[in-house]
Design goal:
Strand order of the largest sheet: 3-2-1-4-5
Distance between the termini: 24 Å
Number of helices: 11
Radius of gyration: 22 Å
Strand content: 5-15%
Order of helices and strands: HHHEEEHEEHHHHHHH
Number of strands: 5
Shape: globular
Largest sheet: 5 strands, mixed
Structural class: alpha/beta
Length: 252
């Protein structure tokens, strides 16, 4: 703008100083933002790799429909989440993608079904296991049922609908147990866990965390997926794609 309107060239150092002053002026706003997120009944959480000073760092995000908080840290797990300062004191619903570090906090958990649909598609295409196709249809069917109820102004599914969907879900799980291969342990004992088939972990998650998978069915204020958080980090990934990385931690 300065170049076009006034024929004045601004150096990168000047732009850097302007950005630094702007960032410093937002310190109070940042704390206000964190306070409001802590009071929000539903928040979305995600993390993604981000290169800073040519090293792999992690961009963490906590957001809702109105607010988004970003935090860059060298670690992906609990250490970074503790320093971010939201999850340790959060008591509402945390929507996430089942990264196990989130389960180290005593908030209420909601799992992202967009991730489940992608994983089920992989199992369906790579291993030709029919249960994955049926589970996709089940989740999308429940989603359609919830959306129809909301469009009719209904605040919850009937008990009969909920029981019917749960039976549908449970029946597919029973079928899946017959289709997921069991990988036999090697004769020679080795350290570590026994190797399992790739679809085994997905099935276990759908069984052990059924209430978090179907949270959107029980409570219409909860989402089907974690797409809001994924959209919030999309532009930083675009920035990295164009620029390669952030040149400094302060710049990040």
């Amino acid at each position: 703008m300065f170049k076009d309107l006034f024929n004045i060239h601004m150096s990168q150092g000047t732009i850097k100083n302007v950005l630094s002053r702007g960032a410093n002026a937002l310190t109070d706003f940042t704390e206000h933002l964190k306070t409001n997120l802590l009071q929000s009944p539903v928040n979305y959480f995600d993390e993604t790799g981000l290169r800073v000073e040519a090293k792999l760092n992690w961009l963490h995000v906590a957001s809702n429909e109105q607010l988004t908080y970003y935090f860059i840290h060298g670690k992906r797990g609990k250490e970074a989440m503790d320093e971010m300062g939201i999850l340790p004191n959060y008591q509402g619903y945390a929507v996430h993608d089942h990264w196990m570090s989130y389960y180290r906090y005593n908030c209420l958990h909601v799992l992202c079904n967009a991730h489940h649909l992608r994983e089920l598609t992989f199992v369906e295409e790579q291993y030709q296991q029919p249960w994955a196709t049926k589970m996709k249809e089940c989740l999308l069917g429940i989603k359609a049922g919830v959306e129809e109820a909301i469009s009719l102004g209904v605040c919850a599914l009937t008990q009969a609908q909920i029981i019917g969907f749960e039976h549908y879900y449970d029946g597919i799980v029973v079928e899946a147990k017959q289709q997921v291969p069991i990988i036999k342990a090697p004769k020679l004992k080795k350290r570590g866990r026994v190797k399992k088939h790739k679809s085994h972990n997905l099935l276990n998650r759908l069984i052990e965390h059924k209430s978090e998978v179907l949270a959107f069915m029980y409570n219409f204020s909860l989402p089907f997926d974690n797409n809001l958080a994924e959209r919030d980090i999309r532009m930083t990934k675009l920035k990295q794609k164009i620029s390669g990385c952030f040149r400094s931690a302060e710049g990040g």
